[in-house]
Amino acid sequence: MRVTESMYVGGAMAPDAVRIRRAAGRDAEAVTKVFLASRAAAMPYLPRVHSDEDTLAWITQVVLPTSTAVWVAEAVGEGGGGEVLGFAVLVGDDELDQLYLRPDSLRRGIGSRLLAEVRGAVDGPIGLYVFRRNAAARAFYERHGFTAVAFDDGGRNEENEPDVLYRWTP
């Protein structure tokens, strides 16, 4: 199913047009496509350190089976399940490890809904890292009450890109 204008109300996606659910193994390819498209659009400055095939293998063999929880946001319509629009990954008890949306699904409340799922699954503070240059992601998390608590030189990530540790406390 393609996302259409009729699924939007007042510029935001109608609440019943998007379903948030736990991810399954069958979602690996769609999650990988969202991950790759989002990073390419939002962070073109990042070096490509893995092939698309290696990224799919990582999502399939590591992210989906070993994370504490993975949620997908998918477009829904008359025929049931639809396209994956975004996903969020919780690692351990308190780390939001990934939250990505398709570039054509931004600013429609989907990221906020995914973040709400993560918050609902955690009984305390949540931490996450964001690349310093990713101004849109930083603004999103700051709007949702996250505070920058540490700045890193990039030595902790494989892209060697300076990042920021954010923390949210209920």
Summarize this structure as a short list of keywords or feature phrases:
single chain, alpha+beta, Aminopeptidase, 4-stranded antiparallel sheet, 4 helices, 9 strands, disordered N terminus
Largest sheet: 4 strands, antiparallel
In CATH, the topology is named Aminopeptidase
Secondary-structure-based class equals alpha+beta
What is the average of the pLDDT values?
A: 89
Question: What is the H/E order?
Answer: EEEHHEEEHEHEE
Note the overall shape: globular
Task: Please report the distance between the alpha carbons of the first and last residues.
Answer: 37 Å
Question: How do the strands and helices of this protein lay out in sequence?
Answer:
Blueprint: E1 8-9, E2 12-13, E3 18-22, H1 28-42, H2 52-66, E4 69-75, E5 84-91, E6 95-101, H3 110-121, E7 126-131, H4 135-143, E8 147-152, E9 163-168
Antiparallel strand pairs: 1-2, 3-4, 4-5, 5-6, 7-9, 8-9
Helix pairs in contact: 1-2
Protein architecture, described:
This protein has 170 residues and is an alpha+beta fold. The protein has one domain: Aminopeptidase, CATH 3.40.630.30. Helices cover 30% and strands 29% of the residues. The strands form 3 sheets. It has a 4-stranded antiparallel beta sheet, with helices on both faces. A hairpin with a 2-residue loop joins β1 (8-9) and β2 (12-13). α1 (28-42) packs across α2. The longest helix has 15 residues, at 28-42. It is globular.
Question: Short description, anyone?
Answer:
Helix content is about 30%, strand content about 30%.
